[in-house]
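Subject: Sanity check before I submit

Could someone independently write out the structure tokens for this chain? I want to compare against mine line by line before I put it in a report. The sequence has 293 residues.
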Amino acid sequence: MGFFKNEPLDFEPGSKFSYSNSGYDLLGVIIEKVTRLPYSAAVSKYIFGPLQMKKSGFNFQKLQDDNKVTNYAYLSPTRQAEVKIWNSNLTYSSGALYSTAGDLLKFYEGLSSFKIVSEQTLEQATNPLLGHYGYGWFLDVIHGDRVIDHGGNIPGATSYFLFSPEHQTCIILLNNITSTTLEKTGKSMYAALRNKPYSIPKPQQEIKLGEKALLRYTGFFEVSANYKLEISQEADKLFMRINNGDKVKLLAESENRFFINDEDMALEFISKDDKIVQLKIKQGLATKIADKI
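---
Independent answer below. Compare away.
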């Protein structure tokens, strides 16, 4: 709590919704005070134990299991970038729980049969409040169907969990890479199961932009005094150089969005009054904003 307790509020509590890891950490502290147990022990006592979720836990660093995965920040046929496993004591109650699809199916079955919470409690938890969020669940609609879902993401691991009480359907997706498309994949799978229209996330494809169109993106951008970028043009290509590093070729995905071949980095140029004013840099789960200078 020391990391955030003295920070200013984004808005008056109860007036808006914004997902917050700090909010879940605060919930973990409350759980410890109510149960008089460490958070991990409370989850084991009230969820893992009753549901026989024997392959779920918190200390993934020390887990000894032949089926333990390697975590990747990026993975392709030509490049594999492993990522260091997070310390679950630091992510606490806002992340880093490990599990399997089989164990999470037990969790779904336990919820659906009201083995770990009552029907009334589950109904309260899945009733949309502000921002289409309940008590720990997003409440979405896919082709008119009510679905209850949530994703999770840390460097090297991504998860997505969806269920529909009315259609007794559950989708569980786990990835040992940093992914931003798993949630879309899960929703597309649900639509396919219901014989509804769906789309599948596709690999990034380069489009060609003319030299005149590329020229407006060139210049210098600054995230901070220690993070500066130069965007330059050579013929019909853009190149990026961070600080004094090597030039890297940018590939156009759309008129203002670019990516780097075989890298987990995407760039979006932001304009105002038809002039480029900022550059949004996404790498993995991190987003940086650079102002044009």
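---
OP: Matches mine. For the report I'm noting this point. Helices lie at 21-35, 39-48, 88-91, 101-112, 119-125, 182-193, 211-215.
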